[in-house]
Amino acid sequence: MDTVSPLEQALHAARALVLADLVAAHVAEADVVSLVEESVAQRRWWVEQWPDGAPFVAGLVAQDVQDALLERYGRWPLCPVCGSGGPHALDIAPELGPDPHWVCSEAGVRVAAVGALGTALGGGTATS
């Protein structure tokens, strides 16, 4: 039986977490899922060069997809915390580190872990 390398585990986990957030926000259309796949392919090379960066891959994939969506469709994910002011997107924190979270920079609060955006959007987790 073949075992999955830690690198592949990190990439598969990153894919799953970002897809869960896209599903929770109801934007997981085929072309958007393709953006996730493109990011995972690019990050595979990155983490092969720097294996110690494997814990950072989920946040990087989330940022890649967020950037690609901004270029093609607009801001994502929109902040569910702020009730006043104009709509604004959440950010990833830390920008390069383990345990990435969606944060509202305007309110200065952590909104949800990457992969758990559904709880902040009122939909629970992707599995509930």
Question: Can you walk through the features of this model?
Answer:
The chain is mostly helical and 128 residues long. The chain is 46% helix and 9% strand. It contains four helices and three strands, in the order H-H-H-E-E-E-H. Strands 1-2-3 form a three-stranded antiparallel sheet. Strand 2 (101-104) and strand 3 form a beta hairpin.
Short description:
This protein is mainly α.
Descriptive key words:
single chain, 128 residues, mainly alpha, three-stranded antiparallel sheet, 4 helices, globular
Q: How are the SSEs ordered, and which strands pair?
A:
Elements (H helix, E strand, L loop, with lengths): L5 H19 L5 H20 L7 H16 L18 E3 L7 E4 L4 E5 L3 H4 L8
Antiparallel strand pairs: 1-2, 2-3
Helix pairs in contact: 1-2, 1-3, 2-3
Global outline: globular
Task: Give the CA-CA distance, first to last residue.
Answer: 32 Å
How many domains, as an integer? 1
Quantity of strands, as a count: 3
